[in-house]
Amino acid sequence: MRHAVLALLAERSMHGYEMIAELEERTGGLWRPSPGSVYPTLQLLEDEGLVQAEEEEGRRRYSLTAEGERKAAEVLEAGAPWARLRDAVGGPRLALRHAAATTLAAARQVALVGDEHQQEQAVAILEEARQRLYRLLGGEAAGGTP
């Protein structure tokens, strides 16, 4: 968490929830740190003199101090922490996770705003996708019959 915060703040000042959103986006949804990990890290970095906070529109916006900039440069020599996470997990696994998350989001939308007929069609589409995925794992052609 510490390295990720320093690396983000090397780019621009942010408040804690911006950092959470940035990390989630930059890891393709693999990592969404909780406020319970971000804010204590920010407090620790502030206590160490690496970040400073300013009150802006009712929120604390954090930026690096001169010493924090030096530490962030050291961190970034090894590459951005979120890139290392993506690389470790990455590839098809990351693409699969993204596809599943966006499909779930679409299904939720149909459940919320679709009419009964659309919801029934969505169930059929999802059931077919589930069956095809299991057939894929079973070694059958994805387009074949069960």
As a percent range, the share of strand residues is 5-15%
For this structure, the quaternary state is single chain
The CATH architecture designation of the largest domain is Orthogonal Bundle
Distance between the termini: 46 Å
Query: What is the domain total for the residues?
Result: 2
Mean pLDDT: 88
Order of helices and strands: HHHEEHHHH
CATH topology of the largest domain: Arc Repressor Mutant, subunit A
Counting DSSP E segments of at least 2 residues, the number of strands comes to 2
How would you describe the shape?
Answer: elongated
CATH superfamily descriptor of the largest domain? Winged helix-like DNA-binding domain superfamily/Winged helix DNA-binding domain
Number of helices, where a helix is a run of at least 4 consecutive DSSP H or I residues: 7
Largest sheet: 2 strands, antiparallel
Unreliable stretches covering 5 or more consecutive residues: none
Q: Kindly state the percentage of residues in helix.
A: 55-70%
CATH first level of the largest domain: which class? Mainly Alpha
Rg computed from alpha carbons, rounded to a whole number of angstroms: 21 Å
Class inferred from helices and paired strands: mainly alpha
Largest sheet strand order? 1-2
